[in-house]
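DOMAIN: structural biology
WANTED: fold as tokens
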Amino acid sequence: MQEAPAIQSAAPELEASLKFGKKVTKSRADLRAFHIRSGSFKDTEELVIFEKLHNRASAYIVEAEKLYAKHEYRRAEDMLDNANITMTGLEIAFTRGINTAAQVEGFLQDVKEARKEIEGLDAQKATIQNPEQLRHYEGYSATASTLAIQIERLLTTGRVKDARYMLEDLNATIANMKIALDRLNPPSEKVKPEPTAEAPPREQIIEDEPVQRPRSAKRSKREEEAARYTAQVGKAKKDIVAMMVLRKSAKYKGELADFLSYKAMADDSIARVEEALKQDNLAEASARLQDMKTAMFTLDALLKEAKAQAQADAEGLPPMRPRR
């Protein structure tokens, strides 16, 4: 008779335990389903973000089970809620990764078509007679070819976001090749009618003929491009200052050397861009600008990882896996 109340009181506890166990099982199954399909990721940065969210959600589930075993039911439920909230972010990261992977083949095809376009334009450069003009055109052509190689390398190494940005630069460079080629080989003009009596003397006409206008337009185009590079360098300098401030506020553990190494790379690239601009070597400036963007991108990724690690430390979660 004394055991009856114990049996009655144990039933709800057993029911609650089974219910909690089903929640944990479902959460683990959802995690496993995400993990199995993550093998189709093509962007390494997106994969790193996905894996961190996956590890965090898994850590929450493990902690929830430990708390439940200690009869800390309310905290266990809260921890399981944290796992489900994290999995909402995990689903977003998963969707983004799958969508990016689907774009890679399209980007590779874009590069293939760009190579054909470069070859077609280069086939026309034999008509350029002026050596200085030829050098100007070949600067764009060399930059375009280098960008195509770099984009393919980025795509095959999982740096899809960098490749996407660089593909925009490739298209802009090819557009500049077309402009340069048209300008260096203008269509033949119709014969001008003889000047009337009211027209200025022939000597004046020769002096004012717009021989300088194409050169002036060319200088304007180069100045515009140089101004765009200068603006990008200025923004990068400000971003580096902001990153240094944010790095100090985060508990940046274990990767300070990496951060400072890439900062030095960014600083060196900036200096090289500025030097190339002083020498009016836009092809070199464009190439070094890509180095700068790569370093800045890596700095940003390292900073995000540092902040995520600091947050995980504050929440008492286990350390994240090392960055690959």
About this structure: The chain has nine helices and no strands. Residues 73-122 form the longest helix (50 residues). Residues 61 and 261 are 37 Å apart (CA to CA).
